[in-house]
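ok trying again, last paste got cut off:
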Amino acid sequence: MIAGVFASCKHEQKTLSMMPYPESKKSDVTDDYFGTKIADPYRWLENDTAADTKAWVEAENAVTNNYLSQIPFREKIRSRLTEIWNYPKSSAPFRAGEYYFYTKNDGLQNQGVYYFRKGMDGAEQVFLDPNKLSEDGTVALTGLYFSNDKKYAAYSIARSGSDWNEIYVMEVASQKKLNDEIKWVKFSGAAWRGDGFYYSRYDEPTSGTELSNQNQYQKIYFHKLGEDQSKDKLVYEDKAHPLRYFGASVTEDERFLLIYASEGTSGSEIYCQDLSKPGSKITMLLKGFENNYSVIDNVGDKLLVLTDFQSPKYRLVAVDPMNPDPKKWEMVIPETGKLLEGVGTAGGNLFASYLNNASTQVVQFDMKGKQIREITLPGIGTASGFGGNKDDKEFYYSFTNFTTPGEIYKYDIASGESASYKKSEFKLNTDGYETKQVFYKSKD
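nice, full thing came through this time. structure:
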């Protein structure tokens, strides 16, 4: 047995016994990389569904749990953290048609529950409770996507922490689950257009290899409501680059389909199709992968693109899909000395969120880039949620900082006024605290 010692605040010591680590077998596996031989004796552990791998994991967990269970103050820490985290939490409401949606967690629920109400004064109803997607709580809600007419909502789930997702569809007004079922989806949402949506998927893997095989050749399909997945239309594939990721989005007016390509966590390439022109082809809009590009929306024939191309702190430009040469880009929001973290749209306006001295700063512009106002936030901290629909008159955003556990505000787009909508129910009165920023200049 191996022993360890823990000292408490009262200088008491307790010797903890430790089970011996399980023996990890070694296999005789060697790879030859261009004449250099590399031993890989633990290759067998890569087979995550094998019986010997499962037994090894269980033995390792037994050692860990045995040791942790002996820590004298472990349950006190667990109890105190549970007490601190056990308070109601809500997200900022967002509008989808005539309904407002938001999540609530009573304190210790594994996942927040989606609620909705007809108008902000309507009766609150449960829309989707992800905690009930499975009896054992191992199914997670990974996304919720509303059709542009707000009649339907697609939602994606993941089982047991897997990257594989499944997509289902609900009728919003009745909360009735439809028969649509989409499988073999990874790293994808549902981009609605008309009576269906675009999504990304891989080919169905061979049985037994779902969690171990490398995924290749991600493709984009269009699913029409009510049809079996086998009838979904292949929209885009790239046979020359098997490891690239592809995702789809559609502008709010459903005119443009955007296809994003990536090879990792940074750098993108975008393709575009004008859906208003029957028979139009998918063409390259912005070549990758040296820079990052994100289409915010369109203004008529032009696409608004947030990019770090020749602007490391980002700018917003208008790009003509018929002539996307960077020399032809029109400036909408120029680069400044502050990092432009994102741009949202709502009520026919742009909302630019900057990182300014480790704090959020939001500036409201019209769609041509004329500044309307800097939004007065509740204080120094982090704010999010500045976006909505083109016909919105108001929206809700969240604010938090070191002394504010989370508060929701309603923002009037025309007047620029913010009003507190919902305060956190955290079990500590923080009204007597304040957050300050103090800057010091070095003598050097």
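cool. The chain has a mean pLDDT of 94. The longest strand covers residues 176-185.
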